[in-house]
Every structure is written in structure tokens, then in C-alpha cells.
Amino acid sequence: xxxxxxITGGAGFIGTNYVSRLLSQGKKATIYDNLxxxxxxxxxxxxxxxxxxxxxxxxxADVRDAESLVKAVQGVDLILHLAGQVAVTTSxxxxxxxxEINALGTFNLLEAARQSDRKPVVIYSSxxxxxxxxxDVPVAEGEENYYFPDHPQGIPESQLLDFxxxxxxxxxTGDQYVRDYYxxxxxxxxxxxxxxxxxxxxxxxxDQGWVAWFVIAAVTGKPIxxxxxxxxxxxxxxxxxxxxxxxxxxxxxDKAAGKIYNIGGGPDNTLSIWKQxxxxxxxxxxxxxxxxxxxxxxxxxxxxxADISKANQDFGWKPEIGVEDGIRMLTEWVRANQDLF
Length: 341
Description:
The structure is a single chain. The strands form 4 sheets. Strands 3-2-1-4-5-8-12 form a 7-stranded parallel β-sheet, with helices on both faces. Strands 9, 11, 13 and 15 form a 4-stranded mixed β-sheet that branches. The protein has a two-stranded antiparallel sheet with strand order 6-7. The radius of gyration is 19 Å and the shape is globular. It has about 350 residues and is an alpha/beta fold. It has helices at about 15-25, 40-50, 65-70, 90-95, 95-115, 165-185, 210-220, 240-250, 255, 275-285, 310-315, 325-335; strands spanning about 5-10, 30-35, 55-60, 80, 120-125, 140, 145, 190-195, 195-200, 225, 235-240, 260-265, 270, 290-295, 305. The chain has one domain (about 5-340): Rossmann fold (3-Layer(aba) Sandwich), CATH 3.40.50.720. The chain has 12 helices and 15 strands. The longest helix has 21 residues, at about 165-185. Helices cover about 40% and strands about 15% of the residues.
């Protein structure tokens, strides 16, 4: 009997790519999504057009609905928990809704899994924002980028937590609940603290999904604003590499259960957000890209690079797609789908 896999937020960017991966392998998938996010109805339509209208099950429901989750997780072997409120700025404007979706929604899911007819594996999509501003970590400035002089491999999972913003608090709450449900209830859970993930089917906006937003804006001629000096550095991970990490953690759940992993591009896949990314994007687009300049945004990290060595040690994962190839593939997808933007 084939395994049953439930993806909350399965109509979003990462979820759509993972469902596509499963269906292309002949596996079954159930999407649990309230379809409220821009682009999600289009993603569902694309999956149906590509794989057939009956190729997956869609449960149109919200993670704040505990009763619906209890029904949805019955008979499920793996839950990939991607559903969430994803923007820091939105969390500041409406912290209650942010809390109810990210913290309470994750709690609802864990309770449903705990009470289910089997103990499903739960993989939780957390964020590096749980580490906060990293004020205590020395940062040096180069000509085109900031960097960690004392952490050449990036920030490890042992870095102290320092939730910042309502979004950081709500995602961090979920992060810790997911881990603790392994310790207290024996539920096989895994936490992925994810860096900047990018790829096709990502409808990025200025406040979330910045890599996709810059590509979309450059291709379609929308204005781009750079906050700060553009030297801020992030490690970037192409979505296919993230999906491989999900599969490897699941396949090695005996080793991964109860653990937390930084999952990102790591030190080999970094870019400063405009000093380095700007020229790369201009070359891809074939023209210079004008940008507006604004002051630094509060809480903006000068640099974040994830130390991803633990995932490599525990289940043999490492990124395979470099930033130049990844940006090229994302740009090609945006060009082919300009009508969506």
C-alpha cells in the first residue's frame, strides 16, 4: 500500500513544487490549504493541468480549524507542515492573526497527529528568523558584502534563540512545540530552519520571497527598492534542493526524529542582496536594472548564512544547484509566465 502524504499549505510555492515532485514519482498527495494566498488557485490549476484532475486530493480548509485537521491526518504517514503566515510586516500589522495561524495552527496540527490512528512523521518548515538579529555575532564588512569572521561555515543550530517580531515569535513557538512533541509524546518530528528558498511557482512580493520578487520585478519592469546599502548577505537555496532534504529526512527518520536542522544554501551559495545579485540579474535580463534607495529597515540582518553541516552528517544532504543556475531557471520560469504577474 502506498504511503499517504499530507501537505499543509500545499498550494503555496514550496508545497506546489513538492506535490509536483510526488506526483511525477507516481505517489499520492493530499493538499490541505485554504487557498487564501495569491497564486494558490493558479497553482492548483497548474497541478491539475499537468498531472490530471484526479491526481491528488484537495482539502480546502484552514489550520486554525482543529476539527478539520483531525479528520485530515487520519491514515497519514507523513505530514509536511508548510501552512503559515509568511511576512514579518504582516505580523507587525496584525499579530493576532499571525499567532493564530503560525503558533495555534501548528499546535492544532501536532494535536491532530498525536491523536491520529498512527504516529505520522511531521516535518515543520521553520525559519532562520528564530535566531533574531544576531546582535552578539561579530560581522565584518567587505567591498560587496558583509560576512561572519568567526563563523566561516555559517550559524549553527546551537546559536541561541532570540525571537524577533511577532512572526519570529509565532514561528519560533511552532518550532519549539514541534521539537517537544517528540520528547514528550514520541511523535517523530523534524524541524527545518530554512533560509531563503526560491524557485518556480513563487509569487514573491517586496516583503516576502525577495529573490523571486527581484526577478519578477526585473522581468516585468516593476520598480525595485533597495533598503540599506545592498551589501546584506543571505544564503540561497533552490527549491528542488529543499525538497530533496525533506525526502532524505523522512527516509532517515530514525536518525532525524526529534532534531532541528538549518537548511539553506550554506556558505557556498550566498549573495549580497544587490551588490552581487544586481549584476547577476542584469546579466540574466540583458539590461541594467534601475532601483530606488531607502534607509535600513528595522531588524534587517547584515548577514545570515546557515551552517548546514548537521544535515549532511545525519542524512547526507547538501545543495546541488548553485545560485547562478538557480537564478537562471527562476528567470526562465518568470519569463514564460509573465501573464501571472
